[in-house]
Structures are given as C-alpha cells and as structure tokens.
Amino acid sequence: MRHTVKKGKTLLVNGPASVNILSGETTILGAKFRKGERAVIRDGKRLPFETNKRVVFDLMLGENASFEEVDGTTIPFSWKNAFKKVVSHGRPVTVMVMGGTDSGKTSFCVYLANRALKEGLKPAVIDGDLGQSDIGPPSTIGFSRVTKQIKDLVEMTAESVCFVGMTSPSSAVNKVGEELAMMKSGVLQTDVDFLIVNTDGWVEGEEAVGYKVQLAERVVPDAVVGIQQTNELTSILTLLKEKRRVIAIESPQVVWKRNKEKRKSLREFGYKKYLKEAKVRLFPLSQIKVEDALSETGGHLTVEHMERMEEGLLVALQNADRSFLGIGVFCGVDSRRETIRIYTTVGENVSTVCIGQVKLNREGKEIV
User: Residue 242: its pLDDT value, please?
Assistant: First the structure.
C-alpha cells in the first residue's frame, strides 16, 4: 500500500509489517532510512518514521498491524539532552537504562547506539531484559557491538550470551547482577568505548527497588538513565543519586502498551529463532555435565534427578569454555543407555547442559 507523509510528521507503524521507501528519506530512532531500504517490524513492536520532507512509503501490513501519523517528532527532548550528558563523561563510558514495562527502554537504547555511532564512537549493548531479550534468546543476557545503524536490537547478532534460565529476574537477583558485572568487565577490555546496559521492567515494589539498586552497585555504570512515565522510578533514582550520576528522562507520549499476550508472543519469536531446524539429539551423560542453571554452587544433576524432571524445560548448551552454543528443550533421559535427549540445533562440542525453569513445546510456545 502506497502512503505519503508530509514534512514534519512521524509515521508510527505497529507490526507485523514491512516498510519500504519509494522516495525521500526518514529517520528511525536516530538511524537514516533511505529510498530502496526495507524495515521489518515484528508483531508487538512499533517503529517511528520521522520525516523532514515529503516521503512516499510502501506499507505491507500483516494481521492486526496498523499505522498512524502524528505531528513532529516522537523522540522527547530529554532523550537528546541525556545523550549529550552521557557522551560528555569521557571514554569509555557505561550507561545503564532503567524503566518500567513498555516505557521505551529498548527504543532509547537503539537511539543511544545510533547517536554514538554517528559521533564516531564504538558502541555496544548488553541486553539484560530477560523476559524481552532481543540480542539473545529469552531468559538470557546478550551482548553485541553496534557496527552499523540499527532500527531494532533484534537486528544485532549476539557475540556473547549468558543463560539465566528464567524470564523474570525476581528469583535470580544475584545471578543477573553477577553476570551483568562480569560481562561489562569483559566488554570494556575490548575496543568498545560507549557501553549501553539495558535492564528489565521490574521497578515497582520494595524488592524491585532493592534489585535495581543492587544492579547498579555491581555494574557500576558511569550514568543511570531512568525513563519515567509518572513517578514509578522515584524511589530507585533517589537511592542511586547518592553514589552516581542519575539522569531522568520521559517516556514517549506515543509509547505502545502491550498486553501479556503480545509480550509472550515476542518471547516465543525469540525461542523459535534459536530452535529453527532443531531436532532431537542424544548426548552421552558420560561426556557432559548437566547442571541447574540457577544453582549458585554449580548444581550438578544426577540421573535420578533428571528422571524426575518434566519434559519441555528450556536448556542451554555450552562448550568446554562455558561459552553459549544455543538453547534446547529437554525431552527426557534414558538411564539404561545413560543419555539425555534434547531438542536443539546444537550437535557438537557440547560439554555442559544447563537446565532452566521455562517450559516450552517444540514449536517454541511457552507451557504454563
């Protein structure tokens, strides 16, 4: 469908959709989008196409997709000001992004990365949002360098992934903090000089406040940017101000509120991406270790324990260096043959299997 947008407008497209530019040029979260280029928008995601002159779009809308036009830019002035404050810190700089569910955290991370790249910096993103992870599969923390302008974090290829094994941080507070700190330390030993750490949307309640403060204490960012829709981050930001630079910014007025089903659909998209062309594979228990991903002591599992486990549990497969190889679905154990069955794309170099708490079927659908 051909659609023309006049100068000074922003076209908001809700996926699933595909957008091409027939003439003109637009900007998506700080990234230039030109004639002949194509943007794919996932179900449950929204992209803003900001125009400074007349632009003709070709829109292909999937089921329940939609679009609308609004006047001016959808990027708050506070976002632009926050980037200036962060970039003035020096090199390298680490900025931690906090905000509630559907506050615009991911969009802000994309905006920061594009602005940093435009300034000649070497940005990277650590995605610590377990439930809505874009760089790695759901239930993981993923890292990737940003080498070209992006429209969505999902475009990035994970360079390093840590498996937590659940989509909520509430029962994995220590593990998330430790892994984020370790990943940040390793990243800053490379040529990255602008590190963005995205976090999850758990911000309300005493436990959430303590968790977010603990994250900041472990990661030690140079700045914490809090995206507020009302005053949901007040307690967290007040406590953080005592030790580090805090920048409060506003959530976009046109932020898209997604229900639980939409967020679940996005997670399942992530599982399916990593399980594409998977099959049931057998791994000899004499050659691998099987562990509980959330155990702080290693949690080596015996055959007897595995026999009692439910089929469908999400697992991560690692090599001898504990590097992430991929995810899989636990299908059972054969005590007589001493093998474990896993539905996965990974077939070689497996040294450790980590068992998580999420349950999936082989189509990547979550099982409650």
Answer: 86
